[in-house]
Write a structure and sequence with these properties.
With 389 residues, the protein is of the alpha/beta class. The chain has one domain (15-132, 141-387): TIM Barrel (Alpha-Beta Barrel), CATH 3.20.20.70. It contains 18 helices and eight strands. Strands 3-1-2-4-5-6-7-8 form an eight-stranded mixed beta sheet. Helix 13 (255-261) links the parallel strand 5 (245-249) and strand 6 (267-270). Helix 7 (66-88) crosses helix 9 and helix 11 (200-212) crosses helix 12. The longest helix is centred in the first third of the chain and has 23 residues, at 66-88. It is globular, with a radius of gyration of 20 Å. The mean pLDDT is 94.
Length: 389
């Protein structure tokens, strides 16, 4: 029985989202989200916990520079992957981890190395592919944030994809994109630094509370979580409860950050927005979009379960939606990835204020446009219907 069902009376949780219960009767979902499911039900330890017992051959890493840390991580990843592989075959269970972890205090772990890598990448900031190289303790970065992490809200989200509900969602301020139609523009662009300032220890407390009160996962979202990674990854050092970690992101991270995230993320929830760089630059002011995001999708798909979100934009079926669906079919393992083709677009933010500047986006998406994208997904063998909201 899931944690949520343990803490909330049956007559309440069964009313919330029936599909969140029966979704696990779907063979395709169980197969593609196997790792996430095993962690969710506390059968096996989450990846961030396994990273705590992947032991470093070095005892002191404080003086290491970035290249030394990256090299050390590469040497340590094999042990971590062996643990993940054993857990995925249910040969290493949560109870086994708990026994091993009791004697692990004071040992330098893969998680410690990852924390130090992110700290190096944070100053000057190279967490995302904008690579603004700003010391965010002195100036505001391209993400509109200083060196602090701002949490605007955290709660059990009941509107996410069925396998995720109830999702322990944490909304971080700031974003490295400037989407003209952003539906969360108040925290991503307008008031990114108006949330609660959290330390790693406080963020761990938030995750702990979400889990013990029934969240099936911790869902890092925003805005965009990437600019706050220095706090997020260090919070895992203080988090001692088992819970799947979800990275709900625009996937515009640097290669180094993406590789670090593969050590701690159990389920990827990437937002694949555009099928070309021209639309990305025009609508989100982001350069080199397609090559960066497609690279990170490939890396992520090798190291974790994945549900790709694609919001169908009005007037962008041919240039974006269909190109993305074809790319997924040609480049990602179709027997592993789930896709959520979303029809929730509505004119928001700058599009609502200045509709003549983006005329194609000044209306809701037509049902025919969404059905055209779904028809292509059907034709190419992409599974999308079980998780759609």
């Amino acid at each position: 029985m899931f944690l949520f069902e343990r803490f909330v009376p049956e007559k309440i949780w069964r009313r919330l989202r029936p599909d969140a219960i029966y979704i696990w009767d779907n063979d395709e979902v169980r197969k593609r989200l196997k790792w996430y499911y095993l962690v969710m039900i506390d059968r096996v330890p989450a990846k961030f916990l396994l990273a705590k017992i992947a032991e470093s051959p070095e005892r002191k890493i404080d003086s290491f520079d970035l290249e030394q840390l990256l090299d050390l991580r590469r040497r340590m990843v094999k042990e971590h992957r062996l643990l993940v592989n054993a857990a995925s075959r249910e040969k290493y269970l949560l109870e086994d981890f708990e026994k091993d972890y009791k004697g692990w205090k004071g040992v330098v772990s893969l998680l410690d190395v990852d924390i130090q890598i992110v700290k190096k990448l944070f100053n000057p900031c190279r967490l995302c592919e904008r690579r603004c190289l700003i010391d965010r303790s002195k100036r505001i970065g391209a993400c509109r944030l200083d060196h602090r992490t701002y949490v605007h809200s955290w709660f059990h989200h009941l509107g996410e994809e069925a396998p995720l509900v109830p999702s322990g969602t944490i909304f971080y301020g700031g974003c490295n994109f400037t989407c003209v139609y952003c539906q969360n523009y108040d925290i991503s662009q307008k008031y990114p630094r108006s949330g609660e300032v959290v330390t790693p220890r406080r963020l761990a407390e938030i995750q702990y509370q979400l889990r013990i009160m029934g969240a099936r996962n911790i869902n890092h979202v925003g805005g965009e979580p990437t600019p706050s990674l220095h706090t997020i990854i260090e919070s895992f050092k203080f988090l001692d409860i088992n819970v799947p970690q979800i990275w709900n992101s625009n996937m515009y991270m640097t290669l180094e950050v993406t590789e670090v995230l593969t050590d701690v993320i159990d389920l990827w929830l990437p937002d694949f927005k555009y099928g070309n760089n021209k639309c990305a630059l025009r609508l989100s002011a982001v350069p080199r979009y397609f090559e960066v995001v497609s690279r990170n999708h490939i890396i992520a798909s090798r190291d974790g379960d994945m549900i790709i979100r694609h919001l169908v934009l009005p007037g962008h079926v041919e240039c974006c939606s269909k190109r993305i669906i074809r790319w997924i079919a040609e480049n990602l393992p179709k027997d592993k990835v789930l896709v959520n083709i979303m029809d929730q677009y509505r004119p928001e933010n700058l599009v609502a204020q200045y509709p003549r500047r983006w005329p194609e986006l000044s209306r809701p998406v037509y049902r025919e446009e969404v059905e055209e994208v779904m028809a292509l997904a059907d034709k190419l063998g992409i599974v999308y219907e079980p998780v759609s909201r």
